């Protein structure tokens, strides 16, 4: 079984590639239903990633519906690949979204929201372990972003697959999750 970030990245990219669009939809809906069980609903500012369809990421549209149904402030981001920083914007009815050169849907403009304001972050990932460590695409965008949030910000990974026992090569700067939601189970760290 793969245990290094590099091996896990490849392994899970392949697993995701083999999911059908129907499976992605079904599993994403199951994840959204699990999210309802989390103790996060007294919070106001929720950061949600918009999925890269080509990478078969968890479709967060169902979570967006939950949040808007509960009148939450929804925050989405734009990534700067030169500085590896993310800037955050309030998602409103007027927000225009366009895919960047990496097929990431991003807001073109909007009301900026500082990282410190965000109370809950839904984090994309490829794999995670029983300790709350995660493997992303390796660019460090989320570790940088999460380090700018308040320490009490709730970090929730979303995964189609179950936890690995342990990811071997974790760095000090890697930020651990508080929860990871899968279609069948919520892991709490």
From TrEMBL:
- Entry keywords, A to Z: ATP-binding, Ligase, Magnesium, Metal-binding, Nucleotide-binding
Give the catalytic activity: (6S)-5-formyl-5,6,7,8-tetrahydrofolate + ATP = (6R)-5,10-methenyltetrahydrofolate + ADP + phosphate
A Pfam family matched in the record: 5-FTHF_cyc-lig
EC number assigned by the record: 6.3.3.2
- Where, by residue number, does substrate bind? 52, 57
Top-level taxon of the source organism: Bacteria
InterPro entries membership: FTHF_cligase, FTHF_cligase-like_sf, NagB/RpiA_transferase-like
Q: Which GO terms describe its molecular function?
A: 5-formyltetrahydrofolate cyclo-ligase activity; ATP binding; metal ion binding
What is this protein called in UniProt? 5-formyltetrahydrofolate cyclo-ligase
């Amino acid at each position: 079984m793969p245990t290094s970030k590099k091996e896990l990245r490849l392994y899970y990219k392949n697993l995701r590639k083999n999911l059908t669009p129907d499976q992605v939809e079904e599993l994403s809906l199951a994840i959204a239903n699990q999210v309802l069980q989390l103790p996060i609903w007294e919070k106001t500012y929720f950061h949600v990633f918009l999925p890269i369809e080509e990478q078969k990421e968890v479709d967060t549209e169902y979570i967006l519906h939950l949040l808007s149904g509960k009148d939450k402030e929804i925050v989405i981001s734009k990534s700067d690949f030169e500085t590896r920083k993310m800037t955050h914007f309030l998602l409103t009815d007027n927000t225009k979204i366009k895919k960047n050169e990496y097929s990431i849907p991003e807001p073109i403009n909007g009301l900026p929201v500082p990282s410190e304001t965000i109370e809950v972050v839904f984090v994309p990932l490829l794999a995670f372990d029983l300790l709350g460590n995660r493997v992303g695409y390796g660019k460090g965008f989320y570790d940088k972003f999460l380090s700018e949030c308040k320490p009490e910000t709730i970090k929730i990974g979303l995964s189609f697959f179950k936890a690995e026992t342990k990811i071997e090569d974790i760095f000090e700067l890697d930020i651990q999750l508080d929860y990871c939601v899968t279609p069948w189970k919520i892991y709490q760290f």
